Amino acid sequence: MNQRTTAPADRESASDSLNSREMRRILASSFIGSAIEFYDFILYATAASLVFGELFFAGMPPAVGLFASFTTLAVGYVARPLGGAIFGHFGDRIGRKGVLIVSMVLMGTATTAIGMLPTSDRIGVAAPVLLVVLRLVQGLAVGGEWGGAMLVALEHAPAKRRGFAASFANMGGPAGAVLATLVVSAFSTLPDEQFLSWGWRVPFLLSAVLIAVGLVIRLKVSETPLFLDLEEKAERRKIPLLEVVTQYPRNLVLGIIAGMSSYTVQGLMTVWAVAHVIDLGVDRTGVLNVKAVGATLTIVGIWFAARLSDRFGRKPVMVTGMFAGAVLAYPIILLLQTGTLWGFAIGLFLANGIVQGVIFGPFGAFVAELFPTRMRYTGASLAYQSASTLGAGFTPMIASGLVLAAGGGLWLLALVWALSFLVSAACVRATREGREVDLAGETK
């Protein structure tokens, strides 16, 4: 496998620090744009846990309807790697900025359309079919979002601050989740009849306003200096996807498995666990409020972990979070089984605030540093989005299956979850430390 040379520092790009006006605009764009896109994407996950089973899969037993709802949720995750490949190709060929504009418009259109979609009692089987199509579009759009948002920040940042700069796109994800959860929680206080008839639609329709705000901010950001250098050298003649899978297959696979650990936390705790504890009788609005607090703690964890990764390296920080996840897996599951709001809260805070935050903080820089500039958008997006598909997209269904296989017990789920953290930690340890890699250099 090709290896890159290292250098003590990259060329300074937009500024010598993260405190200049231009760099603050870049970081804000990365954070806000990512938050808006993930507001839309996570909003669907929340609605899938609460209402889609009843509205779009009417006539089925509740458990079957919930499973079908989670299946449509998985469709969006399946589409994310495809979106990463498509948008990554154009991001590596024509630039990061334009691709980000397209992904945002696509996401906003799909989410707003979901808010206007008739339910199955009005148009029959066409309702779930259209829901799946729109979820597919959401997956394609968010597949192209993260890689571009992360790279715009990382490729402008000074070498010694890359980890922290890249984390702004990662912090945008849980920030979007907080916003989505709080908006749904506010409307969930309506009487059930009103919430099911129109209340759930309003958060989706609000996406149109958020997208307009995001576009204004994103249009003011300049193209990254590393890409402009590459463009001047005319080094973008090959197909990025083919280069990634033929020249860097090991890095791609290791990046995917490393990223899965963080996403199993998201899929298990913010989707499956929400439905599980509500079925046990925990108040729906209380669960949503706790979920919002948990996402806020994830942002805090990402913030500190990313800064630590700039000082100590990506690998030590991420492996620490993965070992913590393996140790805490069974206690967290036991807390969920108490059937209380406080049990859910403590479990979620441990999982999202500590485990996911510590792993996810350095992950943007970690995966970007696995690939050279000419294929970085494609490689990083494929690794990240494939991890999301395998780690979060199927986790709710897998969790439900493991519980059934264990006769209703949760011990098997805890065991598999702990093992997944250990496998991811082994993959991180098998990669090179990227903190000192010269991103302006190509492989030798």
TrEMBL record:
<dbReference type="InterPro" id="IPR005829">
    <property type="entry name" value="Sugar_transporter_CS"/>
</dbReference>
<keyword id="KW-0472">Membrane</keyword>
<feature type="transmembrane region" description="Helical">
    <location>
        <begin position="252"/>
        <end position="275"/>
    </location>
</feature>
<feature type="transmembrane region" description="Helical">
    <location>
        <begin position="58"/>
        <end position="79"/>
    </location>
</feature>
<dbReference type="InterPro" id="IPR011701">
    <property type="entry name" value="MFS"/>
</dbReference>
<protein>
    <submittedName>
        <fullName>MFS transporter</fullName>
    </submittedName>
</protein>
<feature type="transmembrane region" description="Helical">
    <location>
        <begin position="287"/>
        <end position="305"/>
    </location>
</feature>
<feature type="domain" description="Major facilitator superfamily (MFS) profile">
    <location>
        <begin position="26"/>
        <end position="432"/>
    </location>
</feature>
<feature type="transmembrane region" description="Helical">
    <location>
        <begin position="26"/>
        <end position="52"/>
    </location>
</feature>
<feature type="transmembrane region" description="Helical">
    <location>
        <begin position="164"/>
        <end position="186"/>
    </location>
</feature>
<dbReference type="Pfam" id="PF07690">
    <property type="entry name" value="MFS_1"/>
</dbReference>
<feature type="transmembrane region" description="Helical">
    <location>
        <begin position="410"/>
        <end position="428"/>
    </location>
</feature>
<keyword id="KW-1133">Transmembrane helix</keyword>
<feature type="transmembrane region" description="Helical">
    <location>
        <begin position="317"/>
        <end position="336"/>
    </location>
</feature>
<keyword id="KW-0813">Transport</keyword>
<keyword id="KW-0812">Transmembrane</keyword>
<feature type="transmembrane region" description="Helical">
    <location>
        <begin position="123"/>
        <end position="143"/>
    </location>
</feature>
<feature type="transmembrane region" description="Helical">
    <location>
        <begin position="342"/>
        <end position="370"/>
    </location>
</feature>
<keyword id="KW-1003">Cell membrane</keyword>
<feature type="transmembrane region" description="Helical">
    <location>
        <begin position="198"/>
        <end position="217"/>
    </location>
</feature>
<dbReference type="InterPro" id="IPR020846">
    <property type="entry name" value="MFS_dom"/>
</dbReference>
<feature type="transmembrane region" description="Helical">
    <location>
        <begin position="99"/>
        <end position="117"/>
    </location>
</feature>
<dbReference type="InterPro" id="IPR036259">
    <property type="entry name" value="MFS_trans_sf"/>
</dbReference>
<feature type="transmembrane region" description="Helical">
    <location>
        <begin position="382"/>
        <end position="404"/>
    </location>
</feature>
